[in-house]
């Protein structure tokens, strides 16, 4: 039987854990607010018991902390510090924060327990955890005051080399634009709504311009709605052109602004953050090396906007793009030998392909020190030679014999014949002049 | 995440001693006879790989997967050991590819079975491996330089993978001791050196390999800490495919890889091109691509991969792409992939499909039966990435539309113009370093910011805030004036634009002035032109400091524009007076006529001079109060003696009076058409001939840009 009428913080945390993961997955930061009177429960299921057995957990009944998603745990105690310190309650609650990798904070009531003091405690939480992130979006001289929601989280790039978390600038500076096809669904750390806001002279937020039920705010918001705002212009053009704006968030940290459609009617200006670093997207290259097209000798997008300088090609091709030789499975080797054999039977038409495949096999066999294979294939080619039909082109026999001979020489492993860069070239015969060109 | 973890540096030490030339005793049939030719022919005897061949091809496969998934910052140093150590490459990035390694291995060749076994040892290679681990990589060097006083944060860890044929467990122990000893010695050396680094952590992976059918003389041992610096593990593996499988498992462990099997890939059959069957392809990638599965526990694990590797693989279903729509997906990670079986037909079909530029969405089968698109395969510049798409609920559900917020009610944003602006400010990579005049390195991204700054110095956001950007006639000037420097041709084009505007004004062409927020018909025509000239001046003035040529454009503009600022006031006063007269004479039409007459008067001088050298042109005196009397100066050489004194200083009482009389007189009769259109009081006859030939073309301001 489960008791639901007693304090059992562990079950509550497990519940939070499950709900958040089902609903939001494991990547979305979540603030968990635990409101408690500071009593930890009694017996089994009490926090003391949970913590005491913390080291004896198996995978199946893992303690819910640290949460398996980015989190902050705020513990709101309906008790003042002195009360909590009189028992070990505070220590236990602090253990919880520690277990959540130090992410979170404990709030207590200043003075006696009354509505006013409770309100002031929650006021502190709001100030700490729910202050909106205000920034200025800039594109040259075009600017707009914006709120970025949710607040961008600080990010640690490499805990060893650079353990200080990076925080984004409050000046979000657009550095240029890129077509959506070129940026190509890049991986991002997080994404945020960019909401234009109207500020009064003191720099306080007047409103987001969103019509509210409140009468007074309404008029202010309506005025704000009618003042041209750069965000709206930018959003409209990004949407129409199918482009994104690259925005600088800090030193070696960039993101992108784009139009995100929620439905057919509703769409919004969004900002996604790339991972900090000089080259967040390999297909764009180093961010610092991106410059204006006007500096290029000719427009890299073409006069008719029919080409693009992206994606950048890496220096070395990956194995799947360069026809590597892998003979770990017998089928790999057999396929390569078959290819040679198939072309051997179509000599002299397939002379070029025959030698290409032959040289590919030769190179791999030399690198792997698999000289027996060279001998084997040489034998096979000699046999093929004897099996040639009477109707065969006379050049076929010459090429097969020549190839077999060359492979045999390579199989001796002597540097003279077994050079890796050396290629077996077709034998020049009286017949080959015309026939080899025919393929 | 740590850049300089153990997997930053991997040293392969492969035994090249005579016994490695022995056969692995696993036969490979290579002579697969085609069915219809088998009669009477006995296939050639199968061959077998040597221990060396097995070791080399397995380690190459390890490197292939590693290079595919981590082309940078994960480095391999390959060492071959016999009577000495042969170091086949260095830590430099240029040496980090399969071709280099294959070429170097070919140069070494297979072990010589007739060499003296007494001279040969794996120890040479292990010593060289420790030595090479102390050598700094370019990444470590770069990080140290960057961190300056915090250079000690840059770690030096590494892994030695040693493939050998050991004699016994005690032989293995001896090898471990040797590595331990060598690290100790070399760390002492490195402590006193600037270009060597002490080894903080070394993982020794000893792989004892032996021919199939033999008994292993060495026992497996899991990872064990031999000292704070050295850990060691021992694997005893049969050669051939067993060794390859072992190294495949190791590469996955060492580089935190995971496996995904793409199922249901439709593929044309080789033999029957019109039929298609479904295939599976297994890919390796960093395990973070599975992060959502691991955390949520909703894993749907397909059967373990066919070769019986230790790993579980996650099955994702191929979704045939229907459109080629370019969409911006919400992607939380992108990881390079490597096919497990790179040369198999299904693998190469899949990779070629992707390399040709198509993307494939992958569906995650869920227990509940619901379908969720969780991943996407896509290539960028010849590299294939597995993108993780967010499939959980968004916290940004139902956000307010941008049209409901600040500036959302404004309907005449210059969306198309800003689109054009964005195209002009697109980015492109500049791979070769460029230098400024002072020799310092020029950062292209800073250039991009500079350009944005220039292009936005005057950029009205809405159509009703601007006149000039609604006029096609201004485009040639507006598009070049924002440039950092102008060519002579640019200047000429700007001047032409200005003359053209002057011409429009003379012809009294309507301007696309917004009437939003004004009552009635909006400003009068001359007021419209005044607004237009002011705006154009604002634009040009914003750029005069760019170059001397920008200055010249402004000079031309100031020379040509109708109203020097100090005369604005007088003009207004004058008009009021005229208005009164007009009312008294009740001749509103006449006013318009007078206007056009004045315009033409004002223009003729300007045009004349404009056609010559405009840059030197002076301020033109012009006021509705004082139109130049047409008959007053019938001099031929008028343009050569510019009325300097007129342009400066106060107007004399006499000229004011005579102008007034002239104006009054002129209103009493209709001006001759010839005089009206004359230039320097010389009227060109038979003008219509020219016009009919289409010589005179003038652009009209376009009313609206949309």
TrEMBL record, chain A:
Transmembrane segments: none annotated. Residues 130-277 form the Integrator complex subunit 14 beta-barrel domain. Residues 325-432 form the Integrator complex subunit 14 C-terminal domain. InterPro entries: INTS14, IntS14_b-barrel, IntS14_C. Signal peptide: none annotated. GO terms for cellular component: integrator complex. The keyword Nucleus applies. It is found in: Nucleus. Keywords: Nucleus. This is Integrator complex subunit 14. It comes from Canis lupus familiaris (Dog). The gene is INTS14.
From TrEMBL, chain B:
It is found in: Cytoplasm; Nucleus. One of its GO terms (biological process) is protein localization to nuclear envelope. The keyword Plastid does not apply. Its main location: cytoplasm. The keyword Lipid biosynthesis does not apply. GO terms for cellular component: cytoplasm; INTAC complex; integrator complex; nuclear body. Residues 616-636 have a biased composition (Basic and acidic residues). One of its GO terms (molecular function) is DNA-binding transcription factor binding. It holds the Pfam family Mat89Bb. Residues 564-603, 616-650 are annotated as: Disordered. It comes from the Eukaryota. Keywords: Cell cycle, Cell division, Cytoplasm, Mitosis, Nucleus. PANTHER family: INTEGRATOR COMPLEX SUBUNIT 13, SARCOMA ANTIGEN NY-SAR-95-RELATED. Belongs to the Integrator subunit 13 family. This is Integrator complex subunit 13 isoform X1. The gene is INTS13.
